[in-house]
Structures are given as C-alpha cells and as structure tokens.
C-alpha cells in the first residue's frame, strides 16, 4: 500500500513536471519568435497582406515547433531520469538560454553573411568575431537571458496547478498545430503558383523546410503559370541598386561595339590560331590577366552588364531590374541592340536586355552559320544608324567546336597542355572554330569606324569536354581566364598586367564614356579597368558553386560550405584551411546592396 502511494506520488510529480515542461517550451517558443524577428529585417518585410499572413503563421508554427523539439530531446529525458523540480528547472533554464543565444548568434551571422549556422559558418564567424560582436550588448544579453529563463521557470512551477485548472493547454496545442500545418499548406500553394512574396522567405529561418507540391498541384488542375510575371518578380525593399542616383554628364557620344565570344580562352589567342585578333590586340589596350564572372552564359553576361557578383543573378529582384549601364545609355539617347544566335524566350526577355532591339540569327547547319548571319546583321544595322549606338554582339561557335561546312582552317598542332587523346581532338577542332571566328571578326571590325569604342572579350573560357555540365562546373583557369581587348578612339597599344575581371567593364564604360562621377561601389562589385583593383580576390560563379581566385591559391566552394583549395595552376590540391578574411569580404559584397 505504501509502495503504491509512493509510485502514485512519483507519477503525479512526473506528470506535474511534464506539464510544466510543456508550458516552459511554449514560453521559449514566444521568446524565439521575438529573436527570430531579426531574420525578417535581413530578408525584407512583406509588402502585401498575403505575405504578412504567411509570415505570421509560419513564425508561430516554426519557432514553437523548434522549442518543443528542444524540450523533447534535452529536457523530457531528464524529467524521467531525475524528477526533481529544482534540478530540472535549473537545467532547463540553462538549455533554453543556450538555445536562445545560439539563435541570436545565428541571426547575426545570417544578417552579415546570408547563411545559417553550420560548422563552416561557425568557423568563418569565429575568425570574424570582433566584427560581428561589435557591441557590449552581446556580453550582457546572455546574462539577461539566463535571468529571464530562471525567473520564468520558477514562476511557471509555482503556478502550474492554477494554469492547468484553466485548461488552456488544449487550445494552445490546437492553435499552434493549425499554424504549423496551414503554413505548409500555404507554402505548397505559393510554390505551385510562383508567389515570390511567400517563397522568398524559404531560407529565412534556421532548420526550415517548407513543404512543396508543384507536381501535385499541376496534376489537380492548378497551372503554375497562373501567377503574373509582375507578381513573380516582385522586388524587396531591401535592394538598393544603385545605392545613390547616378550623376552623369558626357562630353561626347561615341558609338560602342561590345563583342562577347562564348568559350574564348585567353591562352588561345595567338598569331597562328587567331592572327587577326592577335594583331588587333597588339594595336590596342589589352588586359593580360582578365577573368570572367562565371562559366556559363547567364552568369557571365550578368557580371558583364551589371558589374555585380554572379550570386546576385539568382535573386528574384534582378528578373525585372535592368542594368544601370543600359539604363544610362538609354537616358543619353543611345540606340541599343543585341545580336546573337536564336535563344530561348526566357533569355531574350530577361531584364538584362531591357531596352535593346533583339536581333537573333538562325543557322541551318549549326552555330557557325548563325554567327555568320549575326555578323551580317550587325554590319547592316550599324550602317543605317543615325544616332549614337551601343551594340552587344554574342558569337557562339567555339562553345560547340563548330565551323561552317567546307571550312579550311589551320593545321593541327601539339597542345601546349597535358590532354587525353579524345581531348586532343577537341583541342584542334576548337582551334578551327577560333580561326573561323577570327575571320568573322575581321569582316565585322573592318566595317567599323576608328572612332567607335570596341570591346572584345570571352564570355567564359573553355575546357576540352563535350559534357556541358562538366564544363559549367569547372572553375579552373582555362575556363575562367579570357582575353579582353579595348579599342579607344585615338588610343594606342598598351598592355595591362594587373588583374582585372568582368566586374570592371560596366564601371569603366559608365565613368569613362558616359561621364558618371559616382564611385563604382554605388552600383558595382568592380572598379574601373584603368586602375589597379585593391581587392586581393576575384569571385567567379553563382550562389550554388563559386571560386575565389586569390594571389597564391584558388578556393572552390559550394552552397553547403564544402570547399577545396588548389594551387594557381589548379593541379594540386592544397591541404590547408581557407583564408577567412577574403571569404568574409566576398560574402559581404554579395549582400551589400541588400544591407543599406
């Protein structure tokens, strides 16, 4: 009988502790919501009732769920093993304080770097601790959190019986459960209809995996195209591009011809393979250490026209935001046109080409024929212009190793690099394609007046593989080092030996041609090509996979924080830790226009 009473008392005590634990977890969920509000400031506040509605139920459901999971993992087992209220309250207050301060630290890292805590992020942030924790509040806050947790733990324990009598528990559970489930159902609908106002919060909260069911919705008759283009590309108030209005006043209006060649390696422009371009290069300003912005057309063209790191290209805001360069050209009365082989409607209608006349060329026998038609179209167009003009010309044959039928090019040679037998075949076929492009450049440039500014560069480089996926993922020097040649009216040939990149082209044209006096940091990640860049690194790639080219090494990272470090030849993997200062600068630059 006595034993039964003891067991009953123990069960009652454990039951009371469990009830207390549930309310303690709920209270910490509320505290987590208050701290989590910092994430919203980093992402940008909603601009519609729908956005606020989703964010409200998502916040309530997510943070109370996290708090309850924390209770189940860390506190509930101790409740069963050591059912002593004083021990449990102290332990729970410590665990809750640790969790909340970890969350607070995560908000700081997310606001500064745009990523959540992980071993990679923690290692990075630890080396930048002084810059992150620049206020004494981060010393006082942990103490305040511990005091609050101890006070609440004791307060709830003393009043747990009264709280239970009011029978609020079931209502709270139902309310939180409805918020949690409805937020995921809400997101399924938003994802299926491409509602950016909702989906842009997907990565805002830590350990957040909102449900998606695009195929389910389509199978039940909901078309993902029903959402308007304007809604899909709604902008966030956090984007500041440019940071300040441009102040521009040009003394003259020279015509500008900008030629980009897909898959043009810097080390393949020589007197045998491309004799015309080699001679043209020697007569004009040439940049011997120039880097592309990416390894595919979309990313590289984005860096050329916007002058921003490739990770900005993934942001929805830029699907409707035209480059400052083309906007200013339009303001100053330039006729603008884009000449390229036929491309998808998504690319042709992209904001990057906003304000340009589109001239696409078809090729019955491949991209080389399309390039011939492109050159003919440019010559016909520019000869008929009566206003200052800007022409962007994209040639693509080298990417496909293509030449016209019956083309007689250059003799095969031994590659100057180590290649496998199959790669040697591609190497020499690539040279044939470059020689063809060289002849087309001669046809084009011989019809351009000497007072026209001409820029010639590679959109990206080339690695000798027929697998396009492998080529895009390759961040070696051969795939990112490209030539850059600029012809200035009345200029002369000179060689620039310092490092430059695609990011500097837009600032150069804006400052040197269009008379813009703003610092390039107002609108670009780059600096003018005519002065050495103070940065010790170059960012190449997008947000999924990118490389940081430094003075003595190359660091390649993916979006999950995994990284490898190579020597400058990309041949030897170095067994060393990543250089945090450069990476911190890179990450801050990639969010700078959202942090003003």
Quickly give the structural class.
Answer: alpha/beta
Radius of gyration: 30 Å
Strand order of the largest sheet: 4-3-5-1-6-7-2-8
Fraction in beta strands: 5-15%
Count of discrete alpha- or pi-helical segments spanning 4 or more residues: 20
Task: Briefly characterize the structure.
The chain is α/β, with parallel strands linked by helices. It contains 20 helices and 12 strands. It has helices spanning 2-43, 49-81, 85-113, 119-127, 129-132, 137-165, 169-192, 196-199, 214-219, 229-232, 275-283, 297-306, 324-331, 345-348, 367-383, 421-445, 468-473, 477-480, 505-512, 580-589, and strands spanning 256-261, 285-291, 335-341, 357-361, 389-395, 453-458, 484-487, 494-501, 538-541, 545-549, 554-558, 563-566.
Topology:
Layout: H1 2-43, H2 49-81, H3 85-113, H4 119-127, H5 129-132, H6 137-165, H7 169-192, H8 196-199, H9 214-219, H10 229-232, E1 256-261, H11 275-283, E2 285-291, H12 297-306, H13 324-331, E3 335-341, H14 345-348, E4 357-361, H15 367-383, E5 389-395, H16 421-445, E6 453-458, H17 468-473, H18 477-480, E7 484-487, E8 494-501, H19 505-512, E9 538-541, E10 545-549, E11 554-558, E12 563-566, H20 580-589
Parallel strand pairs: 1-5, 1-6, 2-8, 3-4, 3-5
Antiparallel strand pairs: 2-7, 6-7, 9-10, 10-11, 11-12
